[in-house]
């Protein structure tokens, strides 16, 4: 079991990890791929896909589609961009006060369930405050005539607590419940380990909030003395969260040296970090593995060697009917797109396609195409369609 001592040494070791958000050398394009961001460029197919480069960005973090097929793209330095479906036009709709050192960024972005009426966009970012840094949940209203929109009426909804020093494990992923009534938000452990198990801290947790960022009524752990917003706990660095068509909530997180996880998130459950993990400390010391009867919820799938999971998407489109209902994960250090076969509440590993670059996020387009965005200073937006 992990002891509270030596965390400073463990933290120093963790920041040296090359698989976890580290700045790797410039990505090597996939064989035959063109580095040009031109919409007309068409790299050689990767795996079962024809791959088209649509646009290029400066350290992008997340992508999301609006109902009219335009995309919202976030960039590490705090810019939120509105991009045409063909990638040819873009405009900055907001610049946020991001603390972008290390793993800090303007992070996730998700249109509200009622976006067509409310025009609201939810997003997250890392910010400095009194006592340290933390992840922030916010929203704004996309206002103005088409082609001249700006994100206005920006308001902070939630700040993970406590603020701590360091620049890692902010997490900040967003998912709305299928009925559109609740917002699920991920708060990483900030590389501090024990807060993931602490009742009075939101770090290392999945949170269930109202659409206004308040603790949702009926959360399962409030009666046990946890913060009223906590839905599940014992998490590390949660970089993907999504509901499937059956209403199951899936979450992925980076493990330490090994032990990346895909979890089925159940209310009130303890997922074990930092007491158990299928990985090890970066200095080589062992962490007890998940084991039946240990009191912790084990991952449905884990990876060792790691994939360094980025964004998570559950596919529901028609272009790839063979993968309906499956999970797609962007791989950072693995430079891959990963598919996991979901069958009810069970999961098994599927394909892992080499992409020749760190994949930061993955999304499903309105026509069922799979879109991914590369990490880094010249991260490309790629559209994946069936090979013909």
From TrEMBL:
Region ranges (Disordered): 19-49
Residues in Glucose/Sorbosone dehydrogenase domain copies: 57-383
Stretches with biased composition (Pro residues): 26-42
Record Pfam families: GSDH
Record keywords: Signal
Signal peptide: 1-18
Highest taxon, organism lineage: Bacteria
Protein's UniProt name: Dehydrogenase
Organism: Sphingomonas adhaesiva
């Amino acid at each position: 079991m992990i002891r509270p001592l030596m965390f400073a040494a463990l933290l120093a070791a963790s920041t040296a990890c090359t698989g976890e958000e580290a700045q790797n050398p410039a990505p090597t394009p996939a064989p035959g791929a063109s580095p040009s961001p031109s919409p007309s460029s068409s790299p050689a197919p990767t795996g079962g896909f024809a791959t088209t480069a649509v646009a290029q960005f400066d350290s992008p973090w997340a992508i999301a589609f609006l109902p009219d097929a335009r995309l919202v793209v976030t960039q590490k330095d705090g810019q939120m961009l509105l991009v045409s479906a063909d990638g040819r036009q873009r405009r900055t709709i907001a610049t946020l006060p991001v603390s972008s050192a290390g793993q800090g960024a303007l992070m996730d972005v998700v249109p509200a369930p009622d976006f067509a009426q409310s025009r609201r966009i939810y997003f997250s970012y890392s910010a400095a405050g009194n006592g340290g840094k933390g992840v922030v949940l916010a929203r704004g209203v996309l206002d103005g005539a088409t082609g001249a929109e700006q994100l206005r009426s920006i308001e902070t909804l939630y700040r993970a607590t406590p603020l701590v020093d360091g620049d890692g494990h902010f997490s900040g992923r967003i998912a709305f419940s299928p009925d559109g009534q609740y917002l699920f938000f991920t708060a990483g452990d900030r590389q501090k380990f024990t807060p993931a198990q602490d009742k009075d801290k939101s770090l290392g947790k999945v949170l269930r909030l109202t659409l206004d960022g308040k603790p949702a009524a009926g959360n399962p752990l409030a009666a046990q003395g946890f913060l009223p917003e906590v839905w599940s706990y014992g998490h590390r660095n949660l970089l993907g969260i999504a509901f499937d068509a059956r209403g199951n909530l899936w979450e992925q997180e980076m493990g330490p040296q090994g032990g990346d996880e895909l979890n089925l998130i159940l209310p009130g459950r303890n997922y074990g970090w930092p007491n158990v993990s299928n990985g090890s400390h970066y200095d080589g010391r062992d962490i007890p593995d998940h084991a039946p009867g240990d009191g912790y919820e084990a991952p449905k799938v884990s990876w060792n060697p790691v994939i360094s999971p980025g964004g998570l998407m559950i596919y529901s489109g028609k272009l790839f009917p063979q993968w309906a209902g499956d999970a797609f994960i962007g791989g950072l250090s693995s430079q891959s797109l990963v598919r996991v076969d979901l069958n009810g509440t069970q999961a098994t590993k599927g394909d892992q396609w080499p992409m020749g670059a760190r994949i930061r996020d993955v999304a499903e387009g309105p026509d069922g195409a799979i879109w991914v965005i590369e990490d880094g200073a010249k991260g490309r937006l790629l559209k994946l369609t069936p090979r013909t």
